[in-house]
Amino acid sequence: MNKYALELEIAQKVAIGAGDLLLSLSQKDQHVVRKATRELVSEGDLGSEKFIIEQLQQFFPDDSIISEERQDLETSSERVWILDPLDGSHNFIAGLPFWSVSIGFMVAGNLSLGVIFFPLENEMFYAVSGQGAFCNDKIISVSDNFELSKSVVMYDNQFHLDHHSFQRYESITNAAFTTRIFGTATKDLCLIASGTVDARIWNRTKLVDLAAGSVILRESGGEITDFGGNDPELDFRQVVASNGHIHKEILQEINIIENT
């Protein structure tokens, strides 16, 4: 039996259950609360989170949980589930595609498992460290593109969080073939992992956004670092994810801004 087989099975079932809940809510008018000036939270966020936490606590009562909307949950165990119950909340609220359920799993400080489910597309991406990355049970891998000038690069939509964001974006648009902004971290990571696009840049992010996707990306052959080229470990803030082949070139482009 593969390592973490039970955890993977449960995470996938729970993600599908949360996805079904979100699909039903997406057809209804929802109560939406403004958490911050440019951040909203919906019934979908809270309902999905409640469902996932209850399910995980039922199967793994001794494990800890960190979640997007409840950062203060108990984290004393070395086994920690890291949740984004609705990644792409603003897309979901606006009736746009590109939103998902994201469930990561960490053991003794190491991100070990990632499950990301896209209910609208019925796509299940998943990976366990050392066992490869998959979409709907088919193995996936990053692109073999070695040139930034031929690359599709996804970019951060949170321009207001970092005063260098526009400068970095201009630098990347000049260097890359083209850029896209979908507003969903998990979608972009899965697109890189499956070889559809080549990279993504975050000027400001956090652990819950990337925990599951970083496992999937690495298992597909990709690379993820901070802006200095170092392993971000659990300190996900300024991050570059790529197919690995164009990683250094991207870092050079964005770090030109830091040195001006």
Please give a structural write-up.
- The chain is an alpha+beta fold.
- It has 2 domains: 5-139, 2-Layer Sandwich (Fructose-1,6-Bisphosphatase, Chain A, domain 1), CATH 3.30.540; 148-258, D-Maltodextrin-Binding Protein, domain 2.
- 35% of the residues lie in helices and 27% in strands.
- It has a 7-stranded mixed β-sheet, sandwiched between helices.
- Strand 7 (123-128) and strand 8 (133-135) form a beta hairpin.
- Helix 1 (5-26) packs antiparallel against helix 2, helix 4 packs across helix 7 (247-258) and helix 5 (185-193) packs parallel to helix 6.
- The longest helix has 22 residues, at 5-26.
- The protein is globular and about 50 Å long.
- The termini are far apart.
- The relative contact order is 0.13.
- The mean pLDDT is 90.
